[in-house]
């Protein structure tokens, strides 16, 4: 009974910026790790960034220095700030979260995905 809703995708020029948001709602007791992955046509889905409940962030080498992951626990929301975007960043971006419901029922959830296109 938990949903992750993403927003912020779209078309942007090379060198531009976008901020993705993903808000969790439903029967939530606590949210553990949260993250973002992406998948381009014909390629596997790869982890872009993740962040723990203690705000420790990890990034893929391809986005280090350009992307920033953050979270707002009061809003049950994770963000991905994407700067200096490249055409190679074009993909469907998915958020995910490891969520515990009351009475310690723990499960990983995924958002529906949002398209990010970087093109001139």
Write the layout of secondary structure elements.
Elements: E1 2-7, E2 10-12, E3 18-26, E4 30-39, E5 46-51, E6 57-59, E7 67-72, E8 77-82, E9 91-101, E10 105-110, E11 114-118
Parallel strand pairs: 2-11
Antiparallel strand pairs: 1-3, 3-8, 4-5, 4-9, 5-6, 7-8, 9-10, 9-11
Could you describe the 3D structure shown?
A hairpin with a 5-residue loop joins strand 5 (46-51) and strand 6 (57-59). The protein has no helices and 11 strands. Strands 2, 4, 5, 6, 9, 10 and 11 form a 7-stranded mixed β-sheet that branches. A 4-stranded antiparallel β-sheet has the order 1-3-8-7, with no helix packed on it. The protein has 120 residues and is mostly beta strands. The relative contact order is 0.33. The chain has strands spanning 2-7, 10-12, 18-26, 30-39, 46-51, 57-59, 67-72, 77-82, 91-101, 105-110, 114-118.
Please mark out the parts with pLDDT under 50 across 5 or more consecutive residues, or reply none.
Answer: none
Shape: elongated
Mean pLDDT: 96
Structural class: mainly beta
| Helix and strand element order | EEEEEEEEEEE
Q: Quick one: biggest sheet? A: 7 strands, mixed
**N/C terminus separation:** 41 Å
Helical residue percent band: under 10%
| Strand fraction | over 45%
How many helices does DSSP assign? 0
Care to count the β-strands?
A: 11
**Rg value:** 14 Å
